[in-house]
Amino acid sequence: MDFANCLKKKIYKMKKQYFIYIVLAALIALTFSCKKETGYKTLIITGQNNHDWQTSSPILKKILDETGLFTCEIMTTPEKGGDMSAFKPDFSHYKLVVIDYNGDSWSDRTNSAFLEYVSNGGGVVIYHAADNSFPGWKEYNEMIGLGGWGDRNEKAGPYIYYRHDSLIVDNSPGRGGNHGKRREYIVRTRITDHPITKGLPVRWMHGNDELYSELRGPAKNMQILATAFADSAAGGGTMRDEPMLMTITFGKGRIFHTTMGHADKDGGPAMQCAGFIVTLQRGAEWAVTGDVTQKVPFDFPTAAAVVIRPDFKEISFEDALENIKTYEIGKSTKNLLCIQHHITDLAGDEKGLLDAEKALVEVLLNEKTSIEAKKLLLRELSWIGTDYSVNAIKDLTKKNELKDEADFALARLQSGK
Amino acid sequence: MTKKTSRREFIMRSAAVAAGSFVIPQIIPSTALGMGGKASPANRIVMATIGTGSQGTSDMKDFLKLKGQVQFVALCDVDKKHLENAKSIVDKENNNNDCRIYGDFRELLEKEKLDAVLIALPDHWHGIIYTAAVNHKLNVYGEKPICRTIKDGQTIVSAVKKNNIIWQTGSWQRSLFNFRRGAELAINGRVGKVKYVEVGLPDGGRGIGTPPVMDVPPELNWEMWLGPALKVPYRGVSHWDWRWILDYSGGQMTDWAGHHIDIANWGTGLEHTGPVEIAGRGVYPPEGLYNAPVEYDFLCKYANGIEMRVANASRLPHRMGTTWYGDHGWVHVDRGDVLTASDPNILKEVIGDNEIHLYKSENHYQNFIDCIRSGKETIAPVEVAYRAISVALLGEIAMTTGQTIKWDPEKEIIIDNPRAGRLLSRPYRAPWTLPTV
After folding, report:
1. ipTM, 2 dp
2. Is the CATH number of domain B6-173 3.40.50.720?
3. Ranges assigned E (strand) in A94-238
């Protein structure tokens, strides 16, 4: 709307003969600016935390901006003990609010504004220690579902967890919030048909992180999407399957709560974990729209191993083709999986498959591509290839070091005929 | 090729003579035929083992428990340590030092005079060695899954048919009460008409990252271990853990197909056919040497409308095992004698005389020996094993291509999808070829 008003003012200032050009230029500008501005406006609130918020908040921004779905800005509150009346974001301006904050109470006015925002359908992401925040704010605790620390006890609500596949509501007295030693752990999807978890592995290995346990809270209108088993071996373990990912509804608002992602320097394995990143991206989209349009990326971790994204980005097919050129045995195979995933995604798209095949053949014939990389590519071409590949591969059968793989590929390509 | 049926014919003949004038070959307790509780030497089944790793050794010990009905005379492996260990077991049993050892199965098959052979190898070797053994007219106890590709399986099945030998697949769950009983309840409609079957197989495990190239242990013939598979340098993975590498296996999904999918087929009457449509998704480790899917979930539709879902255990309500869902209930079987139903009364049901009584065997190894003697079909014949593994192999193709696969279970071809069709076979590395039947 702002943009339209602005456009109007400018147009009135213009001479009539230029009008048509201006409209055209404006349309072009609009097209470009749309690309930039269609992201759901997102506010990341930070500024006080017993965690390294200076590291985590820019990373959260990067992770969400990366999807192209969100346009994030970070707003920092006054420092601890500062004048909170100065902190008064205009929530109505945003589709999503991400809380990376654990500190002083906000002003009553800001609290009411936030409450109004959520009640009216605003989306919220509760990240890690944000569920430690505001132990005395009733509505906030309803929004987070479960919380910990801040002297929370049985008055905050029951402990909620899974034991032997049964959801347990445990009213026993005791502290709220705990975590053992940091470790890698398996996250188990509990609801597989929720938009956030649909298509994800049911078990995946999370990067070294705190495993929040003994959370307690009102847990109203809450669904537990995923849990992790807090084994006693790693100190402070409860031997329960503790909630890791949750969704909560409050009024018309949707809240996605992730307990994971403890920030180390550069984010560390907890934030660089592809599982943390992708569930955050999907959870954020769901909080805004109630649905998830993002594809499950090829590198979503499995129970087999942690997957780290050092720069928080998924590799593209083009990057993978470039990277794979230097593949040697003992090095990462991630680029190969990216290529395979791309091919699977193209199922039934003949033109797309032919383009992919040509791209693979180009790397195959590139002199700088390593022999080991060529061997991998020949295996892929053995089933996706057309005559285009056959011609290229025929020459390779003369090369000693590639003969077996080239023969393999040719034999298979011809077996389909 | 030399005719090698003589010993088997002799055993069948002598069994019939000893039993008097039975026209139909009868199973004679072996103890009646020899001294000291052992079968007479002439009536003992003479066997060799190809593949003496953990599974081969375990199977061999189970055969040796059959009180002298079986005598092992030769062993073959590409790992000398395996051979040494297996030879000590056999020699101890035979009370001599005569068990012969081989590093090449071809030599063993040419030189030894055998009734039967136990074969327990990585899947990528199954096509060649099963077919070669069957072409030598040997009776085979073959480990599941019987093939790495559909084409290998088709070749093995036709070799068995042509050579008319006795084949037993290592799908031993068939010889346990709870699996037979569950399958019998399902096939006799005790949960109503079965429309949907769920098969839970193990979740994939942790990977080992991307190990570097290593020296081949001196006892291992790595070139022969690889055989028809593409040549790769040794990286510390051969025995057992070959299962997590797609060149040799399809992972847990294909490993266990010969158990719970086989049982599902048994209780659903699908043992001699296959699905017509297969679609699903696999989750592959994003990193590392192990590249078999660690999660998988695919749905097969059959011509008669039945649907079968195969998935890693964590995705299913009953986790591991086979569950038949009918109009009015379900019955679930799994290892550890698991036999449960939606209503406990289902489990008390009696199967009437005129209903379907499934093949009964109480000892999988004994059943093989008995069938060699009687000439009857075993409880886990080759085509049935082929139909079980092809469900998983078609699932694998659906997952690799990302497409819904249309399969003709009669002609055994993939319809209208040449790319997927190529995945029905894996070309062999020269000089290896699949033996002709």
Report:
1. 0.90
2. yes
3. 96-99, 123-127, 159-163, 166-170, 178-179, 183-189, 203-209, 212-213, 222-229
